[in-house]
Amino acid sequence: MNTATFVILCLEGAVLSFNVAASAALIPSIATDFVLSQFVVGKIIWFYMIPYGVAAFFYGPLVRAFDARKVELFCIFLFSLSNLQAGISQNISTLFVARFMMGLFGASVIPLGLILIARHLDETRRGRYIGLFFGSTFVASLLGLFLSGIINWRLMFIIPAASGFILWVFMYIHLPSFKEKTENFRLGYLEAFRNKKVVKIFSYIFFISLIYHAVQQWLGVFFSTQLNLGQFTISMLITLTSLSGIFGEVWGGRLADSIGRLKVVNLGIAFMVLGVFLLLVKLPLGLLVLVMVIWGLGWAFNHVGLSTILTDLPEKFLNEAASLNSGVRFISGGIGVCLGGLIMQKSFVLGFLVFGLGLLILLYVSRLASGNSTRT
Q1: How do residues 356-366 score in pLDDT, each as one tens digit?
Q2: Residues 6+ apart with CB under 8 A from 362
Q3: CATH class for domain 3-174?
Q4: Which residue, 10, 145, 275, 340, could crosslink 295 as a Cys pair with Cβ 3.0–4.6 Å?
Q5: pLDDT for 25-59, tens place per residue?
C-alpha cells in the first residue's frame, strides 16, 4: 500500500467522522429552525446508527465480488450527496432520509479500511497504520465538536459534503484497483462463527463497547447533576476524552506492533477500570481532568489493540471480521446507552460500580480477545 492510498483511507475516515459526535449537539439548533420538539429531532441519531450497524455487515463480503475501489467511489459519492441533502433540507422528514442514507453508505469506510490495511501491510506494521487511520477519525470528530458550537448546523453537513466530493475526485485519480480475483458474493458469517476464536473476540467487543457507551454517553449528565458543573466545563471534560483518544490510537497502534496486541488491549482496559472507579470519588476539577485523559487513553488503547487483532485473523474470516467490527460496536453501543440510562437514572454510584466490575471481568478474561493473532 503506497502513501497516497493510505492518505485516502485516512481522509475517508475523517469525512465520515466529522459530524458523528457533533450530531447530538446540533439537535437544539435544528429543533429551533424546524419548530419541533428536541425529542423528535433527536431521532437523527438513530436514523444514522441503525442503518450504519446493519449495512456494515454487508460491505466486507461485498468486496469479494466487487473491486473495493469501485465500492469506495460509489459510497463516498452517495455519502457526500446525503450530507448535502441534510444541509439543505427544509423539513425534518428530508433530514431523516438524509441521515438514513449517510448511515447506509458511510458504513463502508471502516470495514474496507481495515480489510485493505490487513491485505496490503505486513503484520509487524499494521498496528501503527491502524492507529493513524483511527487517529484521523478522532481528529475530525474533535474538530466537528468544536465547530458545532460556533457555526450554523447546516454547515456541519455541507462541510463534509464538499470535502467528500473533492476527495472523490482525488480518489478517482489516485486510488488503485484492489480486485485480485473474482468470487461470488457470499455472507460467510455462519462459517466464521463456527470458529470459536471469532466468537470469543466479538463477544468481547460486544461487551466492551456496551460498557464504554453506557458510561461515556452519560458523563455529561453526571457532571451536571452530581457535580454541578457548567456547560462549558462539561464540554471541555468530554472533549478531553476525544483529544486523549487521538494520542491513544496512534501511540497504542505502535505499541501493538512492538509489545503485542493483547498487552495493549489489557493496558487499555486497566486504564478504563481506573477511570470508572475514580469517578466514584468526589475529585477536584484538576484531578477530574486527569481521569478523563485516563479514560480516553484506555478506550483508544483497547480499540486499536482489538482492531489490529482483527487484521491477524485468517484470510477467510477477514472480510466478515472487518464488517462485524463496525456492526457489533454500533449495535452494542446503542444497547449500552439504553442500559446505562436505566441504571444511572437510579444511581450513578450503582452504575459506575456495575460497569466497573464488568470491566474487571473483561480484564480477567481478556486473553479471549487474542483471536488468531500470533503477536499477543
Answers
A1: 999 999 998 87
A2: 204, 207, 208, 211, 269
A3: mainly alpha
A4: 275
A5: 788 888 889 998 877 887 887 788 888 888 988 89
